[in-house]
Write a sequence for this structure.
C-alpha cells in the first residue's frame, strides 16, 4: 500500500570529517570557502539572520555549489524541513547533527547521528565563553554514543593539535 512504512531505513549520506558552518559573519565568503573545502566535506547551513524566502534562496544556491563539490549538506531545522528542502541531514535539537556543550546535552541527544561538541577552544562566535580545552573535550566525547565533531576555534592547525579527525569551523576556510 502506498505511503506505508516498509521497514526499510533510509540511507543517510556518510559523515564527513570536516564541516563548514554558515553564519551571517561568513556569508559573503561561503562560495569561496566551499571551493576550498576538501571534496566530500560538509556544509551546515544555518543563516538564522535571513527571512524565510531569502534563507531558502541562499540555501538552494549554496547547496548546488556544495553538491557539485561532493559535499554533504545539512540544514539547521527539523528533519521534516531538511527533507522538504532537499538537505542530506538536519542540524539542531532532534536533528541528525546536534550541537552540545555538556554531559547533560550529550545525554539528551539520543537520536543524533553525530554531535558537535563546543567550544573546544576560544572562539569569535562566543567571545569570553569558557572553552572546554582538549582534556575536557576528550572526556565529554568519550561519553557520547555517536561520533563527536569538534567545534569552536577549530581550523586545520587546532584539529591537528587536538588530534581529532572530525571537526567543524565557521572561520576555518575564510581568507
Amino acid at each position: 500500500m502506498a505511503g506505508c512504512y516498509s521497514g526499510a531505513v533510509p540511507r543517510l549520506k556518510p559523515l564527513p570529517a570536516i564541516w563548514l558552518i554558515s553564519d551571517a559573519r561568513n556569508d559573503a565568503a561561503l562560495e569561496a570557502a566551499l571551493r576550498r573545502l576538501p571534496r566530500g566535506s560538509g556544509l551546515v547551513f544555518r543563516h538564522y539572520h535571513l527571512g524565510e524566502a531569502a534563507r531558502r534562496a541562499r540555501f538552494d544556491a549554496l547547496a548546488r555549489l556544495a553538491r557539485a563539490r561532493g559535499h554533504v549538506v545539512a540544514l539547521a531545522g527539523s528533519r521534516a524541513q531538511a527533507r522538504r528542502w532537499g538537505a542530506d541531514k538536519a542540524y539542531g535539537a532532534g536533528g541528525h547533527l546536534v550541537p552540545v556543550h555538556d554531559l547533560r546535552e550529550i545525554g539528551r541527544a539520543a537520536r543524533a547521528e553525530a554531535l558537535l561538541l563546543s567550544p573546544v577552544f576560544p572562539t569569535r562566535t562566543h567571545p569570553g565563553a569558557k572553552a572546554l580545552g582538549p582534556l575536557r573535550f576528550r572526556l565529554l566525547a568519550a561519553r557520547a554514543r555517536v561520533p563527536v565533531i569538534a567545534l569552536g576555534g577549530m581550523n586545520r592547525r587546532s584539529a591537528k593539535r587536538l588530534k581529532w579527525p572530525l571537526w567543524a569551523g565557521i572561520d576555518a576556510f575564510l581568507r
Summary: Confidence is low (pLDDT under 50) at residues 1-11. The longest helix spans residues 52-68. The radius of gyration is 16 Å.
